[in-house]
Amino acid sequence: MCDTTEGRLERATHALHQRYAVIIREQMSKQGVSVYALANEGVIPKHRRNDFFPRLREGKLSMGEFQRVLVRLNIDPVRAALSLLCDEVSGSYEDPCCETISLVATSLAKHLPGEMATCEGEFSSLRAGLCESIAQRTSATIARHHAQMERRQNGDGFEHAYG
After folding, report:
1. Among 77, 133, 125, 64, which Cα is nearest to 105's?
2. Residue 59 in this model has a pLDDT that exceeds 70
C-alpha cells in the first residue's frame, strides 16, 4: 500500500494528540484535578465530562477547550511542545532538562528581537552549524552552572573560606 503524505500527516497528528493526552492526564493526576473538577470550574462543558479523555486522545476538543485545560493545569506550551516534538516521550515534560530548555528558548524569543533591532541591515537566519555551536556553548555553560550549584548544596562551595 502506498504511504501518502496525507496518511503520514494523519498518523503524526494522531500521535501528537496521544502524547498531549498523556501529559494532560499526568498533570491532572499530579495536581489532583479530576474531570469533574474541570467541568465544575467551567474549563470543559459539563455535558462532555464523561467523554473527555477519548475526545482528548482523538484531538476532538475545541481549541478553546484545549487552551482552557492547558491554562487550568498550568502546562507550559513551549515545554510541552519541546517534550513532544523533540523527545517524543511525554514523560520528559517533567524532566528538569526539558524545563530548562523551555525557559532558555522562551527567554531567547523575548530578547533576540530587541537585540536584532539594534543591528543594521536585514536579519537573516543563522546557519545550522552556527546554531549547533551556540547550543553547545550554552549547554556547557548551563552544565557548569549546575555543577557549581551542586557543589554549593553539598558543602563544597566554601572550601576556599576555610582553606
Report:
1. 77
2. yes
